[in-house]
Amino acid sequence: MKTSRNTLLFGITIFVSSALLFSIQPLIAKLLLPLLGGTPAVWNTCMVFFQAVLLAGYAYALLVSRWPLRRQLIAQLVLLCVAFVSLPIGLSAAWSNSVPASGNPLLWLLGCLAATVGLPFFIISSNSPLLQKWFSRTSAESARDPYFLYAASNAGSLLSLLAYPVLLEPFFTLRTQSLIWTVLYALMVLLIAVHALLLHKSKTSDARSRKSSLTSNRNSR
């Protein structure tokens, strides 16, 4: 029973993480459209930015996954907490008033995206691969093949893309949408903290068991 609850917790965390990851894009798009319009250059620049940051998040997850578990947990929690400096998502007066009146605004757009959503998007994109890596360290029966958790990731992504134009955009202002996103982000950080605590306890318990086993073997000799 405990193992199944642990598996469910991993699935919920990945679901929430993926939903946040894909809902941030239409949210920032709604904020930027009145300033820049919906020209192909703007959309293409946004797509390049998000794809590049997504790949950077995956690369970070690959690097961190080679570290000792304790360092992985600390690094992820620290970066998740640091990302709160960018929340709630919104355009400051400095960015809103600095839109180029003429010329190519693409460099401005890249800088604005990096400053407003770059860090949250980066660290959230690393959650799914890291959580699957952590799940593989648990005692669950399915831990040897954690890739089924991609189903939770895909479900969260699809639901967020469908829910935004149906449930969020028609009924909430951009400020309220940003606050909802921030609350869900805080919930996700709390879930990651729970995983870190459980994994740390499990690792400590395993270490004690091995130590006890070695002591018993020595005494039997």
| Element string (H = helix, E = strand) | HHHHHHHH
Share of helical residues: over 70%
Number of domains: 1
Strand elements, count: 0
Give a quick account of the main beta sheet: strands, pairing sense, barrel closure. Answer: none
Distance between the termini: 37 Å
Class from helix and strand fractions: mainly alpha
Average pLDDT figure: 87
Please tell me about this protein's structure.
The chain has one domain. α1 (2-36) packs antiparallel against α6, α1 crosses α7 and α3 crosses α5. The protein is mainly alpha-helical and 221 residues long. The two termini are 37 Å apart. Helices cover 78% and strands 0% of the residues. The longest helix has 47 residues, at 174-220. The protein contains eight helices and no strands.
List keywords for this structure.
single chain, 221 residues, mainly alpha, 8 helices, 78% helix, elongated
What is shown here, in short?
78% of the residues lie in helices and 0% in strands. It has 221 residues and is mainly α.
Ordered list of secondary-structure elements with their pairings:
Layout: H1 2-36, H2 40-64, H3 69-82, H4 93-96, H5 106-125, H6 127-135, H7 150-168, H8 174-220
Helix pairs in contact: 1-5, 1-6, 1-7, 1-8, 2-5, 3-5, 3-8
